[in-house]
Amino acid sequence: MEQKLRLVNQVRSRYDQDQSDLLRREQLLYGKTSNRTFDLEPEGAFPEAETENPAGVSFFRLRLLAALVVFVLILTLDRNGKDLFGMSTEQIFQSIAKDYVTELGNGIP
């Protein structure tokens, strides 16, 4: 009986250690700081939506907006035949395409 109790305690401590390691990896990879505990959640409950980093969402929206503005600017310049800082839209398109082609892989990214 005592051996069973030791085994149960070992399993529980290993589980706690694994959850702690998982939480640290999650924090390292995603920058999350979660206060949730895995053992206290009732069966079938879903973790609450994480609203800890709303700045990440708004920063994504800002980057998306900036990309859309640049895209519309380039399309407008292309339609009107204008240059941007001395570069034609054809040169801009070539520069964009050049960044995505690997020279060592014979054009295969």
Structural class based on helices, strands and sheet pairing: mainly alpha
Percent helix, as a range, is 55-70%
Tell me the total number of β-strands.
0
Estimated share of beta-strand residues:
under 5%
On the 0 to 100 scale, the average pLDDT is 76
Quick one: overall form? rod-shaped
The gyration radius over C-alpha positions equals 26 Å
- The helix-strand sequence is HHH
- Low-confidence residue ranges: none
The separation of the N and C termini measures 61 Å
Tell me the domain tally.
2
> What is the overall number of helices?
3
Major sheet summary line: none
Could you explain the architecture of this structure?
It is a single chain. The protein has 109 residues and is mainly α. The chain folds into 2 domains: 52 residues, no CATH class; 55 residues, no CATH class. Helix content is 61%, strand content 0%. The chain has 3 helices and no strands. The longest helix is centred in the N-terminal third of the chain and has 29 residues. The chain is rod-shaped and about 85 Å long. The relative contact order is 0.05. The model has no long low-confidence stretch (mean pLDDT 76).
